[in-house]
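REQUEST ID: PR-0412
SUBMITTED BY: lab tech R.K.
PRIORITY: routine
TASK: structure prediction, single protein chain
INPUT:
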Amino acid sequence: MGTVVALDHFRHLREECVDAPGFRTPKRPRIVGSQIWGADYTSADGIVFGLLKVREIASYYFGTYDEEFDQLLMEALEKAYYHDLLGHEELVRAIAPLKEILAEMINDDNRKPLSIGLVVLDLMEKAPVHVRK
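STATUS: complete
OUTPUT:
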């Protein structure tokens, strides 16, 4: 059965939902060249670092939550987790759509940071794969 709610009370509740404390505006990404270039993108830790750095950059320029981009990132994280089992080619396939989205979103205002995100993805893609014995 429906309930009757005063209009002012309804507006107040709606404003509380919009200003929920769990949703913060993303901070400007902190990009440190030595972290980017010094990461070992052949290890799962390095791949996870790279993907999270790309997410940090993308969230600032795309907004707090982009469902499609986040889903693709989760798939890439899964490939990173199972990197030894699935192989490097699966990771490369998972990274490809992320690169496409970043490349499409580049404009004059965000060219440098999004280009760095593309560089991180390229470094992961082209990282030499060592055979473990």
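NOTES: Helices lie at 7-18, 33-38, 44-62, 67-81, 83-86, 88-105, 111-126.
REVIEWED BY: pending
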